[in-house]
Every structure is written in structure tokens, then in C-alpha cells.
Amino acid sequence: MRASGLIAALLLFSGVIFGQDTLQVEEDFSMYADAELAGDAKRFCTSKVFDQSPNKLISVGYDYQAPYDLNLAAVAGSSAATLRTRMNRGLRLAANVPVISKTNILLSIGANYWEHFYDIEGEAENALGRSLQDYGLRTAGVNFTIFKPLNENNFVLVQGQADVNGNFDFEELPALRHTRYSGTAVYGWKKHDRLMYGFGISRTYRIGEPNYIPVFLYNYTFPSRKWGVEAVFPARGHLRRNWSPRTMGFFGYELEGQSYRIANRDNVFNGNLNSLELRRSELRIRLMIERSIKDFIWISVQGGFRYNWSFNADDKDFFRGFGGDQAYLMENSIANSLYFNVSLNLVSP
Fold it and tell me: CATH number for the domain including 302?
């Protein structure tokens, strides 16, 4: 009860004053930007294309992964081990609230909370395996998005995210110095109401460790308005099918990940390791259905294949980059698996 109460308080607090990674472009501000301007007043482009999926203002979801094997390297005096995970599950909460909604600037602020709990068969012998078995992984963070239209055809999109990730609970929160920061800046073009695209750069942890990568934003609705594309490459990309304004289907992928600080709780690492960083990242290839069940309350159901991108571990957090040759402290691997996710969402009008 204490944890759930804190989670609810976090989301309520974020909705008043302040919602995996800043590469996502979820905010729907078009409802605030359609007003006609009189006379020769400057006009600005909106932030979405026709028939794009609605923005999720509040989301409550549950994530499940089917059984798979964890292959963990030796660490801190414990030997290598192959562990059987019966399932991986956890709650996912998010809130995103528009706080400034003018025609010439739009600002959204939000918060998020994710869990990853590991149901491992037997008593894990490996120290990292015991930590995952006993404490799991959590992510909690705040974020912002600024959409700045420059005129009818050009815009700037800026996003930022601050997360704490690790094997913490709500009685043993990590220090602020362990916060992980991400950000994205995009310059784009709104060619017409069915096409917008842009190019930019992002600092991201989606591959499990910090890196700087180019990004390409592309949202397009075909002339028939039955099909579309919603993508921010390389983070995610989906082909969209609009059956009606209240029912949509998607096929595509998303890359999600973070760097998790694994604290030496209950001396699970025998006092030999106090700054382990688990570089967790996975590629999700999926089908999704999103449908309105009552006015602005939508259900989202997705399922697909979870491909392991990274599950290695470093001693401390640092920038390796694409050309870095620093060896990992642990070179782990996990088997791929099927997964399922369902959420209830309050969406924008």
C-alpha cells in the first residue's frame, strides 16, 4: 500500500506542477492550435497530422513477458549461471499534461513509473540474479516537451527527460547524483495536414547506455486517410491503420532501455561491488490495437516479440560511444520471448 500510494501521489503531483525516453513524440497539442487568426496576424503550424493517434494524458498499464533464460556472467565472487525466468511483469504508469497551449508555443510536462519484476525459478546463485529476483528493477522520472512552431511550415521540437533507474524501493530511494538525463532536439517541416518530418539529434539511453544519435521524425497520413506512418527513427516506427476515428491498429517496433544502478542491497555482492550499472535494452516488434471504450477513455492492447538488445553490466556509468572499446564487467545474454501489454488511457479530445 505504501508503494502504490507513493506512485499515485507522484502522478497527481506531476499533473499539477510538472510524463521511456525523450525520443517519443506523444504530445497532442493540435486541439489548442487550430484557431484562425484575423487579418495579417502570423499563422503557425500545428503539431500533428490528420488521423494521428491521440495523446495519452494518463496511462495505467501492465506489462508481461513469457518465460525465458537469463545467462549471467560471474561477478563479485559468484559464478556464472543460467537462470530460468518464469515471467517478467510490472506496472507502467504515465501522465502528460499540457501546461502552456498558445498558438506560438506548446509545453507539456509529465511523469512516468515502470516496474520490471523477475520471477526466477529456485534460489539464484549468481549475485546479479539474486538482486533481480529479490528487488527487480524500477524507473521513475519526469519529462517535458516543447513544440515551437516558427511559421505555417516549420517547427522546432525539444524534449528532455530525467530518470532514476535501479533496484530501489520507496524506502531506499537512490541519490540524485544517480539521475540519468536524456534529450532530443528536432528541426522540422509541416508540408501539409497529412505530412510532417524533421531531423535532429538525441542523447539517449535506449540502447542501455548513454549515446548520441541522429533522429528522423516522420508522420504521414495517406490520401485515403485509412493508412499512415508514425515514426521517430531509430527509436520507433509504426504503420497505422485507421478503421474509424475511435479504432486504430499499428504494426511496427520500439527500442526501449535504460541504465540501471544496481545498489548492493543486503550485501548481495558481498561488499565487493557498489556501483554496478545494468545496461538493459530490448527491441519490441509488435501489433497494437487502440480503441475508445467510452468517450476519451481508450484501451490499448499490444503483443509481439521481445528481442534482447543488451543486458551487459559496467562498473559505474560512463560514455562508451560507438567506437569505445572498454570491456564490460559482465557480458550477459537473455533469451528472446513473447510479450503482452495492456493499458487504460485517458486521451486528449
Answer: 2.40.160.40
Q: How far apart are the first and last CA of the chain?
A: 33
Specify whether the CB–CB gap between 15 and 97 falls below 8 A: yes
Q: CA–CA separation, 25 vs 254, rounded Å?
A: 13
pLDDT tens digits along 130-178: 999 999 999 999 999 999 999 999 999 999 999 999 999 888 888 888 9
Rounded Cα distance between 250 and 159, Å, is 24
Residue closest to 167 by CA, chosen among 266, 243, 66, 233 = 266
Compute CA 346 distance to the chain's CA centroid, rounded to the nearest angstrom: 18
| Three-class DSSP category at 319 | coil
Per the structure, the complete domain to which residue 327 belongs is given by 2-347
Q: Does the pLDDT at position 264 exceed 80?
A: yes
- Apex CA 250: angle with CA 55 and CA 96, to 5°? 15
- Region of residue 271 (left: phi > 0; alpha: psi -120 to 50; beta: else): left
Say what the pTM is.
0.87
Domain count, the chain: 1
Query: How buried is residue 93: exposed, middle or buried, by Cβ count under 10 Å (0-12/13-18/19+)?
Result: buried
User: Please, where are the H alpha helices in 67-139?
Assistant: 127-135
Separation CA 53–CA 225 (nearest Å):
13
- Within 68-191, residue ranges assigned H as helices are 127-135
| CA proximity to 183, closest of 206, 208, 161, 155 | 161
| Nine cell digits for residue 301 | 492492447
Contact between 121 and 133 (Cβ < 8 Å)? no
Which one-letter DSSP state was computed for residue 265? G
| 55 bridge partner residues | none
- Cell numbers of 206, please? 535506449
For residue range 285-343, list pLDDT tens digits in order. Answer: 999 999 999 999 999 999 999 999 999 999 999 999 888 889 999 999 999 999 999 99
Confidence of residue 253 (pLDDT cuts 50, 70, 90): very high
SS3 267: helix
Query: How many angstroms separate the CA atoms of 310 and 108, rounded?
Result: 31
